[in-house]
Design brief:
heterodimer, A: mainly alpha, 9 helices, B: mainly alpha, Rna Polymerase Sigma Factor, Chain: A, Arc Repressor Mutant, subunit A, globular
């Protein structure tokens, strides 16, 4: 039975007829499955509080364990020492000229002289400049003889002859200015420089020394090493004029 | 089954009393299902909309205020759910045209009570959604003009005119 019209404002006789006809329509009901689904959903909504703590606790414990594992892994990873790269030391020049300072371009002694210097440095304190000056003079004298031997490009040739003169002047300078720790350091690094791969030159090896080494590689026919060293030189000294034999 | 008003039962259910919801559900399942099913032409869609309406009622159980009548609150949820469904569907003009054509064909035949009911159902589906909704809230829900206006968020006079137009259309089916 249909509910009666509660509105006196809407007193339409046709509406009553429609309402009567509507009451004869089939009284459709929701399917039983839908009823069960709705009731189950309503039951879960109010009874879920007793079930959820278990599920939530399980997930909570799992997430906590995962965080702990990640934290421990990160901690252990931080404690591992970072592998350091092997020291790259330039190849020790056997009979090359070595520059102490870039400005003076002083030509120093050969390796043997450097060994003597290194030995003397170990025995004598740094504050004792006198013996070093004597050694320096001996070194400069030797270097003057060796200036003419290597094939030095024109640009640096003048520097080399000039450097011979400068070396004498440099010898008179205090040891602290001309004789830095680089020769000894270079000497210490020398054993490590014998590598096939080209490395950046040490501070003691100037561009001329390096070029000389590159020229030797070329004359020896070691094209691969020559190309590699030349590329490294170009990268380190991009504006340094190359000798005619090396500039292609 | 529990006794008590719909508002009390809903409050009890919000507090966790499942039996209160079962009583509520038994009271309103039939009319609500008919209100929804007679607005769509597909039983499966009607089932989905019906179940979705109760889903929303369950989720909103804590937000229900006892000061508002539960029945009006329930049918407002159902109305909004049906409107959202129609918004996502294609325009209802095609459905109305099909229903209208069907009702025209029904008018030519001699109608006994069963066929008249079938024609009435077809004619209901052929009504514009707003008129159909107002008519079903009136016929199935038994709501007043004020309550229908509140639920559909229109003026009282608008509801009145919608009902008048709907009655005029449905009367044509019955008289022919």
């Amino acid at each position: 039975m249909m509910p009666r019209d509660r509105d006196k404002d809407f007193s339409d006789p046709d509406f009553e007829r429609v309402s009567d006809a509507y009451s004869h329509l089939p009284r459709n009901e929701p399917p039983e499955l839908i009823d069960q689904a709705v009731l189950n959903r309503a039951r879960r909504a109010v009874s879920g509080k007793t079930v959820r703590p278990w599920n939530f606790g399980w997930m909570h414990a799992l997430s906590t364990a995962a965080i702990l594992v990640l934290g421990i892994a990160l901690f252990l990873q931080q404690r591992e020492p970072v592998p350091q790269e092997p020291l790259r030391v330039a190849k020790p020049p056997s009979d090359n000229l070595r520059v102490v300072s870039g400005d003076s371009r002083t030509l120093q002694s050969s390796a043997k002289s450097e060994e003597k210097v290194a030995a003397s440095r170990e025995d004598q304190p740094v504050a004792d400049p006198a013996p070093k000056q004597e050694l320096r003079q001996a070194e400069s004298a030797k270097s003057r003889n060796e200036v003419a031997k290597p094939r030095i490009p024109e640009a640096s040739a003048g520097l080399s002859t000039e450097g011979a003169g400068l070396s004498a002047a440099a010898a008179s300078l205090p040891a602290a200015d001309t004789f830095t720790a680089t020769p000894a350091a270079a000497e210490e690094e020398a054993p490590y420089q014998e590598q096939d791969e080209p490395g950046p030159p040490t501070e003691a090896e100037g561009p001329e020394e390096w070029l000389k080494r590159i020229m030797e590689l070329k004359t020896q026919g070691r094209e691969k090493d020559f190309s590699r060293e030349l590329a490294a030189f170009r990268e380190a000294w991009p504006d340094y004029p190359l000798p005619a034999e090396l500039s292609d | 089954m529990q006794a008590g008003s719909d508002e009390q039962l809903m409050r009890q259910y919000a507090a966790g009393d499942m039996s209160a919801f079962e009583t509520l559900y038994q009271r309103h399942r039939g009319p609500l299902f008919r209100y929804i099913s007679r607005q769509v032409n597909d039983p499966a869609t009607a089932n989905d909309l019906y179940q979705g309406t109760w889903e929303k009622v369950i989720k909103a159980r804590r937000r229900y205020r006892p000061e508002a009548p539960f029945k009006a609150w329930l049918y407002r949820i159902a109305h909004n759910h049906v409107v959202d469904h129609f918004r996502q569907q294609r325009p209802t003009t095609s459905l109305d045209q099909e229903g209208f054509i069907g009702s025209e064909q029904g008018l030519e035949a001699t109608l006994d009570q069963e066929r008249q009911a079938a024609s009435l159902r077809t004619a209901l589906l052929a009504l514009p959604p707003e008129q159909r909704d107002a008519m079903l809230l009136k016929l199935e829900g038994g709501f007043s003009l004020e309550e229908i206006a509140t639920m559909t968020q229109v003026g009282r006079e608008t509801v009145k005119s919608r009902l008048r137009y709907a009655v005029t259309r449905l009367k044509q089916v019955l008289t022919t």
